[in-house]
UniProtKB/TrEMBL annotation, chain A:
Its main location: membrane. It is found in: Endomembrane system. One of its GO terms (biological process) is sodium ion transport. This is Na(+)-translocating NADH-quinone reductase subunit D. The keyword RNA-binding does not apply. It comes from marine sediment metagenome.
From TrEMBL, chain B:
GO terms for molecular function: FMN binding; oxidoreductase activity, acting on NAD(P)H, quinone or similar compound as acceptor. One of its GO terms (cellular component) is plasma membrane. NCBIfam families: nqrB (TIGR01937), PRK05349.1 (NF003756). Signal peptide: none annotated. HAMAP family: NqrB. Pfam families: NQR2_RnfD_RnfE (PF03116). Keywords: Cell inner membrane, Cell membrane, Flavoprotein, FMN, Ion transport, Membrane, NAD, Phosphoprotein, Sodium, Sodium transport, Translocase, Transmembrane, Transmembrane helix, Transport, Ubiquinone. The chain crosses the membrane at residues 57-79, 99-124, 136-166, 248-274, 281-299, 319-337, 349-367, 373-393. GO terms for biological process: respiratory electron transport chain; sodium ion transport; transmembrane transport. This is Uncharacterized protein. InterPro entries: NqrB, NqrB/RnfD. Coiled coil: none annotated.
Amino acid sequence: MALLSKKDTNLITDPLADNNPITIQVLGICSALAITAELKASLVMAISVMFVLGAGNVVISLMRNIIPSKIRIIVQLIVVATLVIIVDQVLKAYAYELSKTLAVFVGLIITNCIIMGRFEAFALANGPWRSFLDGIGNSLGYGVILVIVGFFRELLGSGTLFGYPVFGDPIMKTGLYSTGYENNGFMIIPPAALIVVGIIIWVQRSRNPALVEEN
Amino acid sequence: MSLKSKLHELKLKYQGKKMAPAFNAFHTFLFSPDETTHAGGTHVKSADDLKRTMNTVIMALVPVLIFSMFNAGYQHYSAINGFPVDFSLMNDFLTWDNFWIGIIKVLPLVVVSYGVGLLVEFIFAVIKGHEVEEGYLVTGMLVPLIVPIDTPLWMLSVAVVFGVVIGKEVFGGTGMNILNPALTIRAFLFFAYPTWMSGDKVWVYGARERSEEILAGANVDAISGETILGFLAQNKGAEMTYSVSDMFFGFIPGSVGETSAFLILLGGLFLIFTKIASWRIMLSAVIGSLVMGLIFNQVVEFGWITESSKFYGLMSFDFWKHLIVGGLAFGIVYMATDPVTGSQTNKGKWYYGFFIGFISVMIRVFNPAYPEGVFLAILLMNVFAPTIDHYVVRGNIKNRMNRLKNATIYPKDSDSKAEELKAETV
């Protein structure tokens, strides 16, 4: 018997492509724009969201039968806030420089629409194991887009990947820069992320026309 | 057999093939097609289709392009040898030496702009299986005229691909774009490679190399080639040696084609005469910039701002001179009047144009790091154009509703004929 049933596998694989939280549901765009100028920050953000969403989904799912529906949003907020503070403290303790780069955006995971969306749409109606898988799947889908955007923005904008110079030194004019190539300053600013996300959406929908919305 | 009929035969041969759109693009460039619409129904019969419109704009741009080729050389040699003391048009400006610099510096920009842009258009046309759209004919000519002369060609190519794909094709091609593609390309260049797009080393051919030589210790006696707005932004207006006629006729450094207000004015009149561009937009943009300029002049007049202020140079600049320096004239005549991205309603055009002029001068004064805001102002108003139109149309509907409310409607209720009709319909 496989580790996961087919239905459970879909919980993880669907959000990666055809039900991606960013490109299809268009949630969590704000953080995708804000922190993707560097690949490292994107990756840490993706992992943080994975922790918050995975754990949060389990907690909400366990409590789903005792939360009064009138105050469920407040309960959800408290759960997210607790988890986000844990992430924030861990980052400050073990990766201080990085936590300064991510700055307020770790705190703003609380407002990430994907998290509240999954709590509402899935965790409140499913058991803890399935909720956990759903949380992991959605945060993976979110993370994939973040990493793709971060890859292109860091590569084209700063000429580096994870801080490692790929194209040579822009000031000493070595490597690719000796041919006259220059870093594209446009990729550093947040609007570029919007355009990169847009291109991903474009490519995805032209490969699979079933995803195109009617309007 | 005439060229026209030969082309027509070729067209029939290629019909239905994958490359048909590519061929058709050239077919109607010179001649109107042989086919006519079927009989019956109503059709507009007119010679000035989109291609003719675009050709007319290009005709209006050709003098500017030729002037800019001479100016490229003139600025280059003036930077090395100093400005000629007794300026004579034939001996100092319209020389082969000057023109040669234009050929080696300006022409490649034009070729790359058209080559890359049309390639993208053709690829999209072949993939989507529609006709090649004419939109790039004008854009391709505008782009080389609004960039600094030393722009590396690969940067231009990247920007053109970006501008055509993201600025136009993603919205559905020519006629559907929100932003002017030429200005999208300019804005992309500005934000992506700011060191090549601003400062005092980019406006004259070779200024960058010369400044590097000077830094390296070479004894080169050269003028840097700062633009007039650049001088003013640094409060160095007094060091400027350009006369008003220099500014008007365009013997000044600047983006390739923007310098000659005189030729741009002629081009603008030509476009108004041929009814291609809207005179409302041009006039209101001129008024807008004059109003903003006057306001700034008054601020200086009242002594609210002193010479120590960093805005003094540009604020005290005579309001009407804003029109003859920098890219304002070029932007108003060739960019703001783009029929796709501008306002469509007559009343809307007045607002649209006015704010372009108004905001352009405002950005000029308040943005000393890059004292030219025409392209930003036009892009901003491009975004607002549909909103302006929306409110103009709404206002018109409201007016007519009011008129309807106060109008006497015939036949009156007492009309016996009307009663009969009413009875019949009910």
